[in-house]
Design brief:
Layout lengths: L4 E10 L5 E7 L4 E7 L2 E6 L9 E8 L4 E6 L3 E3 L8 E9 L4 E4 L4 E3 L4 E10 L4 E9 L9 E10 L2 E10 L2 H4 L10 E8 L18 E3 L2 E5 L4 E8 L2 H18 L12 H4 L12
């Protein structure tokens, strides 16, 4: 079986009046892109896998002053295949000045026998805003997971914001109570932008603190962002815990009780055609 190489691209441009236009939407099966709203794109898998040896590359370029939401129709099932090399999925995203990106595909499922690398390279302008959620499921029901290595690198104006590595399918890691314990899923959300920046002058009253709940934690970063991490027994529990952490992160940035979270409302608010507001 021949390995697959695919490169897809999403690029926005400002259309005037605060509107966003999808300037480029280039699919390359199995990475197939479909526009599902004024600023919304869904990723549709038009082939099995990825399988070992496949190399998939998705580029996302959000122009200054525009908004983009990227989701997927269903979960990504990573399969074994016959090649010795792992499958690789690379997402390269650039978010320009004053732009907003919401990236939240459905979970990646590591089927038994697979070997997979997920690489994210996210570059943000100084005043860009991003909501980026990733979820990994440890195999299908009743099976051990394949091997997975997820690497996430995010920068703001060229300065490091977050560097993270996750390993799945390593016996010493998976079963450790200090890592995953008996969890079957792991996920993380990066929420970043000016609303989450630390105060320019240290202020005890405005000091950002970690918030910890049952199976989740919202951890302020040194730069303008918060990372929410969660574990779950299944994908439903994982999503619920991530959402609790995301709401805690929104509250920590100064939103009043019951009010739309400052900054986060741009990413999860009610959509209006051509306004740049994104659906939940």
């Amino acid at each position: 079986m021949t390995a697959v190489t695919a490169r897809a691209l999403i690029r926005t441009e400002a259309a005037g009046g605060g509107r966003t236009r999808l300037e480029t939407l280039r699919s390359d099966p199995p990475l197939t892109l479909r526009q599902t709203g004024p600023q919304r794109v869904h990723l549709v898998s038009t082939g099995a896998g990825p399988l070992r040896g496949d190399h998939l590359d998705l580029g996302v370029d959000v122009a200054p002053g525009t908004s983009l939401e990227v989701r997927s129709v269903g979960a990504t099932l990573v399969l074994p295949g016959l090649a010795d090399a792992p499958s690789v999925m690379v997402v390269r995203a650039r978010v320009g000045a004053g732009a907003t990106l919401h990236f939240s595909p459905e979970p990646t499922v590591l089927a038994a026998g697979c070997a997979h690398r997920l690489v994210v390279r996210l570059s943000l302008a100084e005043d860009a805003t991003v909501f980026w959620r990733e979820e990994i499921v440890f195999g299908r029901h009743g099976e051990r997971p394949g091997r997975g290595h997820a690497r996430f690198d995010a920068t703001v104006a060229g300065r490091p914001l977050l560097r993270q590595d996750l390993l799945v399918g390593e016996e010493a890691v998976d079963g450790s109570p200090a890592v995953y314990g008996d969890a079957r899923c792991v996920g993380a959300t990066l929420i970043a932008g000016p609303a989450w920046a630390p105060p320019a002058v240290p202020d005890v009253k405005r000091e950002r603190r970690a918030v910890v709940g049952d199976g989740w934690a919202a951890l302020p970063l040194a730069g303008p962002g918060v990372q929410v991490c969660a574990l779950g027994a299944d994908a439903v529990q994982l999503r619920e815990r991530l959402r609790r952490g995301e709401e805690a992160a929104a509250a920590a940035c100064g939103s009043a009780p019951g009010a739309p979270p400052a900054g986060l409302d741009r990413l999860r608010g009610t959509p209006r055609a051509e306004t740049g507001r994104l659906a939940p």
